[in-house]
Write a structure and sequence with these properties.
Layout: H1 2-17, H2 19-23, H3 47-63, H4 70-77, H5 79-89, H6 96-114, H7 124-130, H8 133-153, H9 160-178, H10 182-202, H11 211-232, H12 238-244, H13 246-261, H14 274-287, H15 292-302, H16 304-316, H17 321-350
Helix pairs in contact: 1-3, 1-10, 3-10, 3-11, 4-6, 5-6, 5-11, 6-8, 8-11, 8-13, 9-10, 9-11, 9-16, 10-11, 12-16, 12-17, 13-17, 14-15, 14-17, 16-17
Length: 359
């Protein structure tokens, strides 16, 4: 773990130190002008590359003491999603659709290389559906692609994506340890450590962004550690793993449902995610306009209960499917309710609170 953390931090620090030279290799992006932007400036989008370096370094050390092929095959499956994201980070304009397709290819590669997929659902109807192998494989591939894409959607708020990955990977490690899946436990802890090395450079002041390579890459690893647990350990409750992976999943589900209800394009850039609402709400009610350098990192702090609580519930209920399904419904309702409350409070205080100007 220490090696993954140190390598990630060192590589990230080198990226920051040699930013002028690295910028010559990238095209101008102006991401801060995008509809969904919540940050200021244009930090390097290579933080995920540093985290992946740290993770690969840790896996290399792990393979020196292990004869299994799981870790190596997991890294091999990462290639399409990672390089599609990296090409986008370098400014070459890989569309969201193509990045999603690359994530799907990575998930398909994982199915072929690892020989694993989700074959049950811990509900009678889902068990019947997922038990049909072609359907189970297709749904697993779709889930892996969606989860990687969902992690990418929460990048841009300083520390948020990294915090979610750290919490979730630690939760996966805890469940894997209770199921005696030692290699998955080790890999999840390596992912946690490597991401934490990047986190120190991403929060509170974003010297580096995770970028698409990091979001899709780390998201793929995290999703497939979760898939592997439920495929290998029949005593692990699928809804418990979904609780551990909760935030990106339900942020995306909520966004899709909201845009379908409004009859809007679900693939268009969006600025109504929960983290974006909270950031703007903080500026309206408390901080004042044009202070994203304060409201951005503060949003991650405000979201800690929402990102940590489902993970904790998933770890506690790791082998109790009925209770885990119940808590999944509860947290989904809380997530949707929080959207409504934040919107209502922002509207209420918009006219009451004095608007501060940037100094």
């Amino acid at each position: 773990m220490l090696g993954a953390f140190v390598m990630s931090l060192i590589v990230g620090a080198l990226f920051v130190r040699f930013r002028p030279a690295l910028e010559r290799l990238t095209k101008v992006r102006n991401d801060h002008l995008a509809v969904q932007a919540s940050h200021t400036g244009n930090p390097l989008r290579l933080g995920g590359l540093a985290a992946i370096f740290g993770f690969v370094f840790g896996v290399t050390l792990l393979l020196m003491h292990s004869s299994t092929t799981y870790s190596l095959y997991l890294l091999m499956s990462l290639i399409p999603a990672f390089f599609a994201g990296l090409y986008e980070d370098l400014g070459h304009g890989v569309s969201a659709g193509r990045r999603f397709l690359a994530s799907g290819l990575s998930s398909a590669a994982a199915v072929m290389l690892l020989g694993l997929w989700v074959w049950r659902g811990d509900l009678p109807v889902l068990d019947a559906v997922m038990g049909f192998i072609p359907v189970g494989i297709c749904i697993t591939i779709f889930f892996g692609a969606c989860y990687s894409h969902a992690v990418n959607l929460i990048d841009g708020m300083n520390g948020l994506a990294a915090t979610v990955i750290i919490f979730s990977s630690f939760g996966i490690a805890s469940i894997a340890a209770q199921s005696n899946l030692h290699e998955i436990t080790d890999l999840a802890l390596l992912l946690c450590a490597a991401t934490f090395g990047f986190q120190l450079l991403n929060w509170p002041s974003a010297k580096l962004f995770l970028g698409d390579a990091g979001a899709y890459g780390l998201g793929h690893i995290l999703a497939w550690l979760g898939v592997s647990i439920v495929a290998l350990a029949s005593d692990v409750a699928i809804p418990a793993v979904m609780l551990v992976l909760f935030y990106p999943i339900f942020d995306t589900v909520h966004t899709v449902l909201r845009r379908l209800r409004a009859r809007k394009n679900i693939t268009a850039p969006d600025r109504m995610h929960l983290h974006q609402k909270i950031r703007r709400g903080l500026e309206i009610v408390w901080i004042g306009q044009n202070r994203r350098h304060i409201s951005n990192p503060l949003t991650t702090i405000f979201l800690l209960p929402m990102t940590a609580a489902p993970v904790a519930a998933g770890v506690v209920l790791w082998d109790q499917p009925v209770a885990a399904w119940s808590f999944l419904v509860v947290f989904s309702a809380v997530f949707g309710g929080t959207h409504l409350i934040v919107t209502a409070l922002a509207r209420r205080y918009r006219k009451q609170a004095p608007v501060c100007s940037a100094n």
